[in-house]
From TrEMBL, chains A, B:
Record feature DNA-binding region, as residue ranges: 33-52
Alphabetical list of Gene3D superfamilies matching this protein: Tetracycline Repressor, domain 2
Record-linked Pfam families: TetR_C_45, TetR_N
InterPro entries cross-referenced by the UniProt entry: ArpA-like, CprB_TetR_C, Homeodomain-like_sf, HTH-type_TetR-like_transc_reg, HTH_TetR, Tet_transcr_reg_TetR-rel_C_sf
Protein's UniProt name: ScgR2 protein
Coiled coil start-end: none
Length: 216, 216
């Protein structure tokens, strides 16, 4: 069990991460300065460097924090869980600085000379776990290569946000995510399950805690 | 009909574009200089600025040149044409500087402060035309929203290359493209057509002119 000192250190680390995310989200990697992040977090520069040896380490930590920002407001399992995660992701990318900065840094990283595939792998693992559960529940077609499908879905979502960012400043991202599911669901879900998986605008609102919607 | 002067100007423009693409591909937008592009193209700096008022205009022209780089070596129509285009695209992204630079600049552009959705729209239009033909030929399911599907496929391919770049330096991109088609084809093609659409490694080789393969 962590003592009070470890808890304080953990809290400081989180404050630095969130401040860094805000600055990266607003200014990009090159525009962000360690001093501005320090001021935004309300900590000393020494505290920043204690947790993160340099700006690159801080950017990497922000990139790896993406999955932790996604918590659907409804319980769900398997294929519906996977859908719900993308509906929360597409919605929170409008407003959550930690997720926005993580995605921005991940997308733009090759321009900074970074080469970090970890954020993609993290998402692929989460998606694959949902698909494995969906297979066991009989929602996912038995002939599905769940590993390959998870890899593809991560790529698809990556591209959806890139296109949506330029097409609409990400306003249409939730709609694009729901459209994706409508288009490809017949190839993924068993005919029996397909009708029960909810990819509606109402579901999107409910999993984002915007309505009183109930779980499956 | 263009006279010799216009033809020369057009040829110079193409030489500048190709030289610019090589430099953008190697060094990214910020690392590329107009003088290096001039030297690479074997033209004067005046000739570069005659065709492109600044580096941003040159980068934009390279971004918009992507579709022109894709010419499948086999004749095909509709859904097979769409598959073939992606198989050529995934292959040429390994080697064609003009395509590589166009994709790199398009992907990284938000990091440079650009905001140009045109390359995505160009690809979506090409894909939608293939899908419309596929609908008419009875290859694409009659209930398909071809506009939405084209928009999704552009996004999916965008993400495939981004993920593949970090996962394998794009080595696995052709395989990822073929896997995408195998995964989603049941949702797109009519059952009758699905078996006839060729997404194999052999097709990939043939449309890239690497074997003597014959058209459908």
């Amino acid at each position: 069990m962590p003592g009070p000192k470890q808890e304080r250190a953990q809290k400081t680390r989180e404050e630095i991460l969130r401040a860094a995310a805000e600055v990266f989200d607003e200014r990009g990697y090159h525009g962000a300065g360690m001093r501005e992040i320090m001021k935004r977090a309300g900590v000393t520069l020494g505290a920043v460097y204690f947790h993160f040896p340099n700006k690159e380490a801080l950017a990497q930590a922000v990139m790896h924090e993406q999955p932790a920002t996604i918590v659907p407001s409804l319980r769900s399992e398997g294929l519906q869980r996977l859908v719900d995660i993308t509906l929360v992701w597409s919605h929170k990318l409008q407003s959550d600085p930690l997720l926005r900065a993580g995605v921005r840094l991940t997308s733009e990283q090759t321009g900074y000379g970074f080469d970090d595939v970890t954020p993609y792998r993290q998402w692929a693992q989460i998606m694959e776990e949902c698909l494995v559960d969906g297979l066991a529940a009989g929602d996912v077609r038995t002939d599905t290569d769940v590993h390959a499908l998870a890899e593809f879905l991560v790529a698809a979502c990556t591209g959806l946000q890139a296109y949506s960012l330029l097409a609409s400043g990400r306003d249409d991202l939730p709609e694009r995510a729901r459209t994706m599911w409508r288009l490809i669901m017949p190839a993924i879900a068993t005919p029996h399950a397909a009708a029960g998986i909810d990819v509606s605008e109402e579901r999107e609102a409910a999993v984002n805690g915007l309505t009183a919607g109930s779980g499956r």
